[in-house]
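We give the entry.
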Amino acid sequence: MYQNINKAMISPQTSLGDVLKALDAVPEFHVIVVVDENRRLIGTITDGDIRRALLAGKSMNELAGNIAHKNALILPPNSTAAQQRHAMQQRVVRQVIIVDDQNHVLDIITMDSLSSSKPVSNKVFLMAGGLGTRLRPLTETIPKPMLHVGGKPILQTTIEKFVDEGFEDFYIAVNYLPEIIKSHFGNGERFNCNITYIQETKRMGTCGALSLIQEAVQEPIVVMNGDLLTHMRIRNIIDFHNNHSACATMAVREYHFQVPFGVVEIDDCNIKSISEKPEQSFHVNAGIYVVSPEVLRYIPSDTFYDMTTLFEDLKETNLRTVAFPLHEYWIDIGCKEQLEKANDEYLPTQILGQ
């Protein structure tokens, strides 16, 4: 039995915000178990359940009992490892809840605990060719992804995060001052990974360089801008992408904006309502994506092409595109103020999610 199982059990009255904290406290489970006062199973909540609830408009005050998945995979305590593994494979889930004949939760068995640690086969494509114009003069002699946050290059923190999660194979798209990036990372051996460089000969946008991949891609590929930091678990967005049968998935971040004036709604010349400095919320592109292999053929060859354009084109062809709500630490380092903010906030254990 896991020593942390008690930390993975919550009451149905727990708020969604506290569920997130509980998930972060027991990352080995990938699930939180909702139980009654006698530890009897009510349901389970995964990272995907939370993100779907947020997309549906639920707030952080929503109660766990209202979003819990009531049809959790359960097995008795005398089930074998082979039976547990088979049951998880059949249901395409990562954990099984062990309960007694009274439905009391005894244990949580994960696929990871039954399997030897395996590397992630999905490839990673990091966009590092931008000019970093808004960060000049800092970027006059160094590419933006190589600026330091917390004592090391932004891009190094990103690669180390992926490697820590089990990713091994990387593409890095380079254009502006590429030798600085190549000389620092080499072939990736020093960072326990394999790196292939995609050399842009002209500006290609946030997606065009994907057309320069020479080898066949067999699995969904993770694409990420090279100038951001996050402690989102990358495996979660891949699982979300696969579970929703998506062709392309975009991580989105909720952004709040307060209008600095009173907003007047009018009908012709009649005032209908007045809202004093209202706050509006939007979902913004977080610069992290998962794209399936079949999507690559929609990217025009060797030309400027943005990721947002790809998503618009895919929608017009009726291919499924989905949004993955990102609620973890995230910062896009696009200007000096954001660079200073990142250095003020930087905590390696927080950003790497260790």
User: Anything to note?
Assistant: Residues 76 and 221 are 38 Å apart (CA to CA). The first helix runs from residue 16 to 25.
